[in-house]
Amino acid sequence: MRSTSTDFENRGRIIILIFVGVMLAFMARLAFLQLFSEEYDKYADSNAQLKKIIYPERGVIYDRNGKLMVYNQAFYDIMVTPREMKGLDTLEFCSTLKIDRSFFEKRMAEIRNRRLNPGYSSYTPQLFMSQLSVEAYGPLQEKLYRFPGFSITNRSLRRYSRPIAAHALGYVAEVDRKDIEIDAYYIQGDYSGRSGIEKMYEKVLRGEKGVEVLLRDVHGRVKGSYSEGRRDLPPVPGNDLILSLDIDLQEYGEKLMENKRGAIEAIEPKTGEILAYVSAPSYDPSLLVGSRRMKHYLELESSPHKVFLNRPIQSFYPPGSTFKPAQGLVLLQEKVITASTKYACQGGYYFLGLKLGCHNHRSPLNLPEAVSASCNAYFAAAYRGLIDHDNYSSVQEAYGRWRELICSMGFGSRLGVDLPYEQSGWIPDTQYYNRIYGQRGWRGATIISNAIGQGEILATPLQMANYCAMICNKGWYITPHIVREVKGQATDSSFVKKHVSGIDPVHFEPIIEGMRGAVTSPMGTSRGVAVPDIEVCGKTGTAENPGVDHSIFMCFAPKDDPKICLLVFIENGGFGATWAVPMASLMLEQYLKGSIAPNRKWMETRLLNANLMNVEPKE
Amino acid sequence: MNQKNKTLSLWKAVDIQSLFIYLLLITVGWLTIYSASYNFDSVAIFDLSSTSGKQLIWIAVSVLVGISILIIDARFYYYLSYNLYIALLFLLLLTILIAPEIKGSRSWLVFGPLSIQPAEFAKFATALALSRFLADYGYNIKDTKRIVLLFALLLIPVGMIFLQKETGTALVFLAFLLVFYREGMSGLLLFVGACLLSYFVVGLRFGEQTLWEHTSMGNFSVLLLIALVMSGLFFRYRKKDNKTWLILLLANILPVLAALLLNRYTKWGFDIAVLQLVLLSLSVLYALFQSIRINSRIPALIALFTVLSTAFLFGIDYTFDRLLQPHQQTRILVLLGTMDDPSGVGYNVNQAKISIGSGGFWGKGYLNGTQTKLKYVPEQDTDFIFCTIGEEFGFAGSAMLLIIYSYLLIRLIFMANRQRFVFARIYGYCVASLFFVHLLVNVGMVLGLMPVIGIPLPFLSYGGSSLLGFTILLFIFLRLDADNLRRH
Ligand SMILES: [Zn+2]
Predict the structure, then answer these.
(1) Alpha-carbon distance A363 to A350, whole Å?
(2) Do A184 and B395 touch (CB under 8 A)?
(3) Centre of ligand 1 from the C-alpha of residue A531, in Å
């Protein structure tokens, strides 16, 4: 290897050659760009294109009866090109806009301050005032030609026909850096759906941006369209949505839930369409529009009542006694009992020191009667019978079978509703109990709380509503959904498909009979739900809670041709019969009859006046 | 010699030419920054809140620091080189830990109104440390331990700058490979690295464009480069009258020329890359045959390099099309300037080209550039400052600027070569190489020849840290050089 110093000195020359070579290449490129290129010659007179984005109209949203819920309202941004302001009659301009002179001077100073406005150029339009309403903009528009340097760009913002359904609709807000990175469609300043169906249906609602190519002169003034608009691209408006919500029922539900925490879900059982989606406390969705958003968002966010919690899909609780029909169905399916099997109840279920209390009723009861009276002893005894049954080789097999059937009713996993951030609830699996009690350490008695929907079982209000729909359909449900139709698009196939439970349709008769009995029989727990002339079936429940219990009620009507399934959930509502049952009764009446009968107004008044906000909240 | 005399002779010994170019460049830079932020309404060139005003402060600070550097004893830089290096490493580490995120990078230390970017100062510190190490031990590939240490000295600051998400600044440290080459690193290594890098950039940069429908511009260009490199290598290692290089050159070029004409003037279009691949395969076979015939390994090694280069090209395509997510693809394509992204980096490069192109021969005159004034060109006072010069002073001005830079680079190499102390010589090469890589990447980017990598143009771009960093880098060398002359 030659490594004399002369050899390396030679390398100094090679390095100089590299330097010179690169510099010559750069000069050749410069010559190409500046002296020979036709392409850039077009701009020789400093004419330049200005690509102006034209924003499409965001799709509007209707309720199931075609009543407008969400629409767009144009707002106007006033832009100023400081370079072109010469000869402006500032006084007249200020009086037209109803601003005072000092405000004008202050704004102009802010615009010219590069620290506040780093992109400043006196040649390009700068934002002077934003989000002017049509009313404020009207007078300006007429005189605009007299104010040199000022121009208008318009943007539309969401408007709501009624201040309701905030949790279902979600809101729209300016995109952040992350959104832009994920989806190249967005640029700084664009808006996109952040939650609710605005987020889920963002791609169909937003449409396609268009572009208008304009020509500018040396001073940046727009001189008209470029090549007669041949390179323009018109915007494509977003698709409209038709929701399954009934705007009147929704409004009524929210009114009833004022000053309470909880949820009301109404589902049309035959279609899985959500008729009402109430999460309380709620807020006026227009609070989160445009420049008002920041302030209100923080305000709502800090509320102790967790306003932004989307209770129907994000909160989960033990379903309590509303779970008993599901138990009955599994027991029938697994032939542990028949509809006429009777169990005795002496005010509760006692076994080896275990105690599940029951209220006073006659004894013994058969299955429909046990559902009606919500007898804890009946379901505890029968559930033990199932889990410890000889038909199965082990407790694990019995429990696994039970869990499989329960999950087939929509529990334990996300339903797939068309709203973001849905929670899955929980039905523990066999491994869970094995881990806690050991492989041989558990039996029916160990997990007896499951029998009455307490213990480890957790379900979201939407899962409970869906389960109610599954009962009245006698064994199937369609994934609940809020959007009934995207205009101009085929229906989403996942919202047509029937999910069939593992329970034979014949087994539903006694259960439905029991739920009817809960409303009609003297020992029923849901008598308060009765609506004149309508056959209602229902089931109350209580979710145990360290503070005041949560009350739950599910029902459907009419019995033989169900049009609506309802789930009312009230945090710290105590016994179902006090608040949840009458609330459901009014909701049914409102939906099925269209109004509340005068002789039932007292009930309505009592509910509207109730304030459960300050009852000890759940920790 | 008394104290006064010594100081006097120091000022005489400082290289006047480099000093003059330095002052010229910072003046041009300052005037250009003023022009880039000028908007016809404001006249306050000395307004201290404006960019040109702030730059003036930094210029004053830099000149003062430069003078101080000249006053300090030259031996100081040799003896304290490792200390400075370690201090800078600590500063870089501190930056990683506490720097807030600004424009996607975590490289700024903020002290009230003052923010500095330690990575800019890591350049001269690393140059000092590497120079000292090479001066003490030399570049000896057989001494594995020392070579590992040498590369560690280089890669530790690079890694830390990467962690600050300043990819551009980290890449600048590649400049030191030129210095290693000068001090004995195998030239082949430099050559292979440069080949693969240019294949990568060219392959993706022109990957989307086609030549008359059938041929990918990227594949065509890279295959052509591979063939040229192959003939070039045969030329470099030829034995006396061996004409293999000429045979290979003609065999690869002539059929391709014919194919180009055929595609251009007839309707018999086809994918020229396929023809090139066939020709390359034949060339490889011919090279292997030569290898056996003259009983030498060299033709076989060149053939192997050719095969690996080709595999590399298709490897890039495969990786790019199959293994990368669409958004990653977009980012790379836009970075390389192939994808037209109206709001992203591609747009910037396009606007930069338009504004330079609109300058013509003489330019529009100082303060009269409109493309840059209209804010079409982003970062026009920092990374894209060359645009403003191209637009306002045209080809005459921007070519002149490139000539001035070239003169400075050559002057620095000349000065490095006259150093009697190895440390000073190596440091001189470090300075020249660092300036060169900045020019290469920055001007290359603005001219649309290089990917968009944001690094400043030495002495011109707005920014206190970079101006001060470059000043220190240069003035230490001026000090070493002055010492060299005085001790003659
Ligand atoms: Zn009982």
Answers:
(1) 15
(2) no
(3) 27
The residue segments making up the domain with residue B238 are 194-336
Q: What is the mean pLDDT of residues A477-503?
A: 91
Asked whether the beta carbons of residue B406 and residue A23 sit closer than 8 angstroms, the reply is yes
Q: Is B432 in contact with B413 (CB distance < 8 Å)? A: yes
Query: Is A519 a domain residue?
Result: yes
Q: Which runs of consecutive H residues, i.e. helices, occur in A388-490?
A: 395-407, 430-437, 461-472
- B207 in A contact zone (CB under 8 Å): no
Q: What is the pTM of this model?
A: 0.57
* Widest distance between CA atoms in chain B: 85
Same domain, B202 and B184: no
A322, A569 Cβ separation under 8 angstroms: no
Q: Which domain holds residue A256?
A: 247-287+307-609
Q: Is residue B341 part of a domain?
A: no
Low-confidence residues of chain B, pLDDT below 70?
A: 1-8, 38-49, 102-104, 204-213, 321-350, 368-380, 487-488
Give A356 Cα–ligand 1 centroid separation in angstroms.
9
Q: Which residues does B203 contact at the CB level (< 8 Å), separation at least 6?
A: B218, B219, B221, B222, B313, B316, B317
Angle formed at CA B64 by CA B59 and CA B67, multiple of 5 degrees: 125
Q: For the residues of B305-363, what is the DSSP string, one character each? A: HHHHHHHHHHHHHHIIIIIS-HHHHHHHHHHHT-S--TTSHHHHHHHHHHHHHTTTTT-
**What domain count does chain B have?**
2
For residues B138 and B210, state if they share a domain.
no
**Within the 346-375 window of chain B, which residues sit less than 8 Å (CB to CB) from chain A?**
353-354, 356-361, 364, 370-371, 373-375
Q: What are phi and psi of A595, to 5 degrees?
A: -160, 170
> Is residue A33 situated within a structural domain?
no
Give which of B148, B146, B98 is closest to B118, Cα–Cα.
Answer: B98
- Give the tens place of pLDDT for each residue, B353-401: 777 887 888 887 777 666 555 555 556 677 888 988 988 898 999 999 9
Residues B283, B252 contacting (CB under 8 angstroms): yes
Q: What's the rounded Cα separation, in Å, for the pair B332 and A82?
A: 38
**Which residue does chain B place closest to A184, by CA atoms?**
B327
Residues A423-463: tens digit of each pLDDT: 999 999 999 999 999 988 898 888 988 988 888 899 999 99
Model pLDDT for residues A139-180, shown as the tens digit of each residue: 887 788 788 888 887 778 899 999 999 999 999 988 876 777
Contacts of A230 (CB under 8 A, 6+ apart): none
The size of chain A, in residues, is: 619
ipTM (interface pTM): 0.84
Q: Which of B182, B341, B406 is facing A8, going by the closest CB pair?
A: B182
How many angstroms separate the CA atoms of B89 and B81, rounded?
A: 12
What b/e sequence results for A283-306 when a residue is b if at least 16 CB atoms lie within 10 Å of its CB, and e otherwise? bebbbbbbeebeeeeeebeeeeeb
Of B133, B123, B139, B19, the closest CA to residue B78 belongs to B133
Task: Looking at the structure, tell me whether residues A224 and A255 fall in a common domain.
Answer: no
| Amino acid sitting at position A466 | N
Distance A374 CA to ligand 1 centre (A): 7
B376 and A CB contact within 8 Å? yes
Interface test with B, best of A7, A32, A33, A233 (most B CBs within 10 A): A33
The sheet with strand A210-216 has its strands ordered as A48-54, A210-216, A222-225
CA distance A32 to chain B (A): 8
Residue B137 lies in a domain: yes
Is A292 part of any domain? no
Query: For the packed helices B3-13 and B464-486, what is the interaxial angle rounded to 10 degrees?
Result: 110
Residue B87 near residue B96, CB atoms below 8 Å: no
| Residue B395 near chain A (CB below 8 Å) | yes
